[in-house]
Design goal:
This protein has 417 residues and is an all-alpha fold. It has helices spanning 13-33, 35-46, 50-76, 80-98, 104-117, 123-134, 140-150, 153-192, 198-204, 206-217, 220-249, 254-262, 264-278, 284-291, 295-304, 309-337, 343-372, 376-399. It contains 18 helices and no strands.
Amino acid sequence: MADLGSPTGGWDEGIFITALGIAQICSWGSLYYSFPLLAEAMGSDLGWAREQVYGAVTLGLLLSAVAAYPVGSLIDRGWGRWVMAGGSVLAGILLLGWSQVLSLRAFYVLLAGIGSLQAATLYDPVFAVIVRRVGALRARGGITALTLFGGFASTVFVPLVQVLLDHTGWRGTLVALGLINIGLCGILYGTAIQPHRDVQLGQKRGSACAKSVRWAIRNPVFWALAIALMAYAATFAAFTFHLYPLLLERGLSTQQVVWVMACIGPAQVAGRIAIWVMAPKASVKGIGAVMVGLFPLLFLGISLLPPAVWVLATLAILFGGTNGVMTIVRGMVVPEMLSHEAYGSLNGLLTAPGTLARAVAPAGAAALWSLTETYDAVVVALMAGSFALAGGFWLAVKLQGSPEPGEQGSPLTPGPD
């Protein structure tokens, strides 16, 4: 198990990571990966157009982008337990409300809340909790271990949601997902994340965090990374949310689509394990520079190769493995390419443009499909996004140099942890 420092509150590090990992599987599975399946079933039942349904996701993710910085700042100041446990309980209540929705207006209100709470429940806040606990220099092992759990979210929840849809309908499925957030995620986050001395220490660190933030936003590396992560988020979101209907359009059956999508999770885990075992001390910028070059190949393959099940499964495995490694890269670019301090605040600022892109991308892809009535144009747009990802990250690597000695908030300046 990764070195996470001394246990606190009677929890050893293995239990700490396991509890957070199980909760992340459920948070990602219920609040993110379940949506494409639920959207298809609900839209068909209520007669809503695809762009209407995905517009609600856009609104929710826009609010998530707004919430990213304040959530990160709260975690920097020691409120991680309340942010993540409270966010999960509120998300569960909103999922229960969604199960009873009859009007498009109510649906938009509920999805706005659910989307905004992703800022408090998915990878970014839990990464900040780990950094908050052990410090930026020791967080890589914990972040990697946590992503191994999170990689199973689609593998567990895509088949689970499909079974629930087949037997209970979309309303019953939402009830089950809501109870999972309230009864499992809320309890796990609330129990595993110990407050110990966080709030008092967090108040003392406010000034240092503010200086690190001011330094980072004047650094061109920050903006190059922001461009790369924005392109990554848009491409990932559009592809993930539209993979289900895209594969159906390619001629696969529902069972084949679920099988292909289920390949992504194990591939994500395999990619993370490979990095953990084969390159545990390799630089994040070196790993990322290789990974970002694989995304254009993925979409080129989808565009040019025949739509056979084994071909699409192979491409899904490539996507899963590459995305799995990129999750670790995304979690560590702040301490390894920017600053050891103010992780939650800086990560919130850095990922906010990506969250905005992630908000717009699914609806944009749906609108593009509506104009052309084919996913060919969507795949071309995804390819363009993958080139922007690669270019932005490579630019950040080129721009990153050794900071001036003693420069506040620089990668050479260790944080107070």
